[in-house]
From TrEMBL:
Main location: membrane
A GO term from the CC aspect: plasma membrane
PANTHER family given in the database record: ABC TRANSPORTER ATP-BINDING PROTEIN (PTHR11795:SF442), BRANCHED-CHAIN AMINO ACID TRANSPORT SYSTEM PERMEASE PROTEIN LIVH (PTHR11795)
A biological process from GO: amino acid transport
Sample GO molecular function, one term: transmembrane transporter activity
Entry keyword NADP: no
Membrane disposition: Multi-pass membrane protein
Protein name: Amino acid/amide ABC transporter membrane protein 1, HAAT family
Cellular localization per UniProt: Cell membrane
Organism field: Actinacidiphila bryophytorum
One family name in Pfam for this protein: BPD_transp_2
Length: 288
């Protein structure tokens, strides 16, 4: 029982990264109908940003947690204005190829500057373990899970309890209908894109003390995150978060009981979900 609960908690921690990344992807896709393949690279830049601020500027984790997502949000808004916006009137495949190219450029630039080897980040704010009753667990991982839950709940409250959130949610889930009511959805596109990118940067900073920080860390993760978004429902904020935590737990339990299927379980689940509900578990099917 202890091993089961510990693996379940491991899954929640892994799922916290999936949830943050999928949340940003869902918001961006819902409003722009853009599959942002650069999301993994932006997550990687978040982790590298924490390392660079620590090694070159001597700034600690808390500064990185504040500055890196903010800087990436600005970069994301510039990317949307200068590049993504120019292709939104065309087939979505063009923006997919654009963001895929941006991801490759980011990876290669980091590889040229820092090499392909992993860089350590030893500025985690918490050390040691915390007693969870049946087992002890690393204090920093508990912090990561708590931050992820708080951020996801805060975003949910923002989207459901505020006027701005209502407009953004309507623009995300029903953009055509929202425009029909006279609301200019374009004014929300750039800040929402920047917000989605900031979530990727936040996940990257949180991952830096736990993961191997290298130029390929985003590429290793983004395919799984896309599967999470598809399972939860494209454009569904709630579905993406729920699917993120669920997939994390499924993979962790798979590592314990069926190791050979632990990495492919998410894709098997995605295939089953698409067969039963093509729009995803919480997605809404569009009718012609």
């Amino acid at each position: 029982m202890t091993s089961f609960l510990q693996q379940l908690f491991n899954g929640l921690v892994s799922g916290s990264f999936y949830a943050l990344l999928a949340l940003g992807l869902a918001v961006i896709f819902g409003m722009l109908r853009v599959v942002n393949f650069a999301h993994g690279a932006l997550y990687m830049l978040g982790a590298f940003g924490a390392v660079v601020l620590g090694d070159d500027a001597g700034l600690g984790f808390w500064w990185a947690l504040l500055l890196v997502p903010a800087a990436l949000a600005v970069a994301g808004m510039a990317m949307e204005r200068l590049l993504v916006q120019r292709l939104t009137a065309l087939d979505p495949l063009y923006n997919f190829l654009l963001t895929f190219g941006i991801a490759l450029v980011c990876q290669d630039l980091l590889r040229m500057k820092y090499g392909s080897h992993s860089r350590p980040y030893d500025r985690a704010p918490f050390g040691g373990t915390v007693d969870l009753g049946l087992f002890d667990y690393p204090r920093y991982q508990v912090f990561v899970l708590a931050v992820s839950v708080v951020v996801c709940v805060a975003v949910w409250l923002l989207l459901t309890r505020t006027r701005i959130g209502t407009v953004v949610r309507a623009s995300t889930e029903r953009p055509e209908l929202t425009r029909a009511f006279g609301i200019d959805t374009r004014r929300w596109v750039t800040p929402v894109f920047g917000f989605g990118v900031a979530l990727a940067g936040l996940a990257g900073v949180l991952a830096a003390p736990m993961r191997a920080v290298n130029s390929d860390m985003g590429a290793d993760l983004i395919i799984t995150v896309f599967a999470v978004v598809v399972i939860g429902g494209l454009g569904s904020v709630f579905g993406s978060v729920v699917a993120g935590f669920a997939i994390g737990m499924i993979q962790a339990l798979g590592n314990l009981y069926v190791p050979v299927l632990s990495q492919t379980s998410v894709y098997l689940l995605m295939a089953v979900v698409l067969l039963v509900r093509p729009a995803g578990l919480f997605g809404k099917e569009e009718h012609a």
